[in-house]
Request: fold
Amino acid sequence: MGLIRSNPASLSSPLLPAGTGINTAGATIGGSLLAEIEARANEIADQRERNNDPLRSNSNGRVFTRFDLSSDVVGNQKTIVTTGLFSGNAATMSVMYTSSLQTDSSKNYYYEAWNGTSTSSEPQFSIAYGNRLGSGSSAAGTLNDSPSRAIYSQYRLLLLEPGDTTFTTGLGDTDSIFALNFNRARIKDKLDPGNWQLTIGELNGDAVANNVHTGSNVKINTSSPKFFNLIDDSGQTQETNLTSAGRVFNIVSGSITSGIYNSTNPVYFGLCYPDMGILILDGNMLNASASFNIVSGSNIAGDNAWKLFTSISGSMSNNSVNYAMQARNAETVTSTHYFVRVKNAEYNFSNNPSFVTGSVGEFAQPTFIGDPKVYITTIGLYNDRQELLAVAKLSQPVQKSFSKEALIKVKLDF
Reply:
């Protein structure tokens, strides 16, 4: 950016500070005070010379402008920004699979769902099954140490109020839950309520004995399967239910485009905790509506988390367009706005070598004599130590001359 041409300021400061006097009757001025007076006199003389020199006042200008914090800076501006939740800011996920890197021991507790892009894959969310009494998982003979009991206790402590020991959905208390926990890097600040949709497909549980409905026996029902689109009821809730885990909404049957199915009498499937990025599905409801046939025996490896994984991935395979998972995250971005005010007499010259020519620094363009023109392309933000902290690039150069002013807003997000 160029230099500024500043208007001369009147100089009214006295030679000595107010209240300072010199007694000339027989007193001698000390050497240090005399030197200070001479330095101040020279400074004032130089200032007056600069102010009285038209050429100097017209061509010498600023290389920076100090912000007026009261009028040029507006801070703490908060904006909620939403993007697609999945890798690459995608809003949908139509293929999912497990990772070969996940150990078998960890699969006793949860399954990690990875996306299925052709170039790369990353973890998107995890699926776990919990039972308050410890049923449906092996504990090597100790029921209190079963994975399903540990999972239920973990989410109870994370999501429920102190003293509350049981999850309560729209269907009542439930000891059997599935937890879908979105990867923390995906949800940023939170899951965007009202902007997610999950499809679960009916399993073949009615045709398989309970104690063997595990592993490869768990499949999507191939005979006229039913599919359920699930959303939250944030759009219908008049008062937000706030807990120590943040907001809580019901998970109901419906779609993002059409809203809640039968809104006067919703079909409840669980609870949504958007501020935690967690969906809790009622295992009893999935048994009744989607034939999950959750293994409920004591000290038996039921592998129940695999049932929800199969239900979701099987729905995607059946119809990757209509049954793809949809979700968006939300992030609160705090911004500070800096208003850069470039007045007509400021920044009309440039130190770019192409601006002048010859050994005496003549204008490269004769038309610049009396009417120079420059283009603003970059704004630099400095601290009081003249250290460059941030650089803002304009989308296109802005022409500047004595007949043009500019107001440029720099937005700094953090």
User: Anything to note?
Assistant: The chain is about 15% helix and 30% strand. Helices lie at 31-52, 54-59, 104-107, 147-159, 184-187, 283-290, 305-318. Residues 86-326 form one domain. Confidence is low (pLDDT under 50) at residues 1-28, 52-60.
